[in-house]
């Protein structure tokens, strides 16, 4: 019998890591499988920040059998003492013979030191097995560690003629229940749900994760952690009656200097947190500054941008959108209706914004297109 290729075990570690999709933030999703003589003798995944890392669960699961085993971990074992750890130390102490990692930990506190620690103890380390798959699992953690900003995923629902709302702003509902469930899941995996004040005024959406709409086994537990709601509101127009202010979880209003009157006080009394950021030319919130604020002060990994044409266009123009998920409904809203993006000043074909499509599939009666802006 030929030996199982390392990719098979790593694929299993990645499947385990996915159990943490909705719960590990701000930590990465990580899975670990311990294998001896071609058999799994222990496995685990990281579930929640502050709780044991994947390797520790797997080692506990294996007990004494871990001695001489090979560990397959989807992320380099940590070398630092954080809320827990260090895992590299635990693997050495358990007498593991070999460690296979999918990718290095981009956290500057680790960044290769975990692998170094293992090698110094005489443990063989193999790197890069299913690295791309491992990276895809933690785009936000990687972006925050490597670029100092979160990963921005933009979700939009549109008609087949590219419209997102009627001229009045009315937009409920364009897509069907399956697409809306997918959007709930996108919210649940995100650290932040971001929108513009215009959208809040038009839709009065709650911007929350609703357990009953997730259709997942541990939905209740997932929905206890509500993503931070961020409203981009350069002139501080958020209505006091906004529904999102009365939901569980926090609402952060991003504005610029000069709006510290009575309305601000009332908003704060209503539970909003106001953050004053640098302004761009024209007086709007500097979006790059907002993203670095969210990475630094909120440890935000993934941001779900659910907004109207103006903020969507501004984010795209600033090069801040990493991924777009477009839900396309089989319906026509007509020429009076609102478009997906406001991208003023595009007049020639060589100014178009090319996209790269990564995935297209049916979601109920709708279509989902995953795309990203092409680097020009
Ligand atoms: C691992 N295995 O399963 C995870 C790791 O505050 P702590 O102690 O939870 O440490 C968090 C950091 O540990 C996190 O930023 C990342 O660098 C690493 N995550 N490492 O060995 C795991 N989740
Ligand atoms: Zn660790």
From TrEMBL:
Residues that coordinate or bind substrate: 171, 187, 203, 207, 210, 306
SUPFAM superfamilies listed in its UniProt record: Cytidine deaminase-like, Dihydrofolate reductase-like
Catalytic activity: 2,5-diamino-6-hydroxy-4-(5-phosphoribosylamino)-pyrimidine + H2O + H(+) = 5-amino-6-(5-phospho-D-ribosylamino)uracil + NH4(+); 5-amino-6-(5-phospho-D-ribitylamino)uracil + NADP(+) = 5-amino-6-(5-phospho-D-ribosylamino)uracil + NADPH + H(+)
Pathway participation: Cofactor biosynthesis; riboflavin biosynthesis; 5-amino-6-(D-ribitylamino)uracil from GTP: step 3/4; Cofactor biosynthesis; riboflavin biosynthesis; 5-amino-6-(D-ribitylamino)uracil from GTP: step 2/4
Keyword terms of this UniProt record: Hydrolase, Metal-binding, Multifunctional enzyme, NADP, Oxidoreductase, Riboflavin biosynthesis, Zinc
Names of the cofactor(s): Zn(2+)
Active site: 55
Cofactor note: Binds 1 zinc ion.
Ranges annotated as spanning the membrane: none
Name this protein carries in UniProt: Riboflavin biosynthesis protein RibD
Organism: Halomonas caseinilytica
């Amino acid at each position: 019998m030929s030996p199982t290729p390392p990719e098979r075990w790593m694929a299993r570690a990645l499947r385990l890591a996915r159990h943490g999709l909705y719960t590990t933030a701000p930590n990465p999703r990580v899975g670990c499988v311990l294998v001896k003589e071609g058999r799994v003798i222990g496995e685990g995944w990281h579930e929640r920040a502050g709780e044991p890392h994947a390797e520790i669960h797997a080692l506990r699961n294996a007990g004494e059998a871990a001695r001489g085993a090979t560990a397959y971990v989807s992320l380099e074992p940590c070398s630092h003492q954080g809320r827990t750890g260090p895992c590299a130390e635990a693997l050495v102490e358990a007498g593991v013979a070999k460690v296979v990692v999918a990718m290095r930990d981009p956290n500057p506190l680790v960044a290769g030191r975990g692998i170094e620690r293992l090698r110094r103890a005489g443990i063989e380390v193999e790197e890069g097995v299913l690295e791309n798959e491992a990276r895809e699992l933690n785009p936000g953690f990687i972006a925050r560690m490597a670029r100092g900003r979160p990963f921005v995923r933009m979700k939009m629902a549109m008609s087949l003629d590219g419209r997102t709302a009627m001229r009045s702003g009315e937009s409920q509902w364009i897509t069907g229940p399956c697409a809306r469930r997918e959007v709930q899941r996108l919210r649940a995996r995100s650290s932040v749900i971001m929108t513009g004040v215009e959208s809040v005024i038009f839709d009065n959406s709650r911007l929350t994760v609703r357990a009953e709409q997730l259709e997942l086994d541990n939905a209740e537990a997932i929905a206890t952690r509500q993503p931070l709601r961020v409203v981009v509101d350069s002139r501080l127009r958020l209505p006091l009656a906004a529904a999102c202010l009365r939901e569980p979880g926090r609402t952060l209003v991003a504005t610029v200097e000069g709006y510290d009157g009575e309305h601000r006080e009332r908003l704060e009394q209503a539970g909003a947190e106001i953050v004053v950021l640098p302004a761009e030319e024209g007086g709007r919130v500097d979006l790059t500054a907002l993203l670095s604020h969210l990475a630094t002060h909120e440890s935000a990994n993934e941001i779900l941008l659910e907004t109207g044409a103006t903020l969507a266009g501004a984010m795209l123009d600033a090069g801040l959108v990493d991924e777009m998920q477009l839900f396309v409904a089989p319906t026509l809203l007509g020429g009076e209706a609102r478009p997906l993006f406001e991208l003023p000043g595009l007049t020639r074909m060589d100014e178009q914004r090319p996209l790269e499509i990564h995935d297209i599939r049916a979601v109920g009666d709708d279509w989902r297109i995953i795309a990203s802006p092409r680097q020009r």
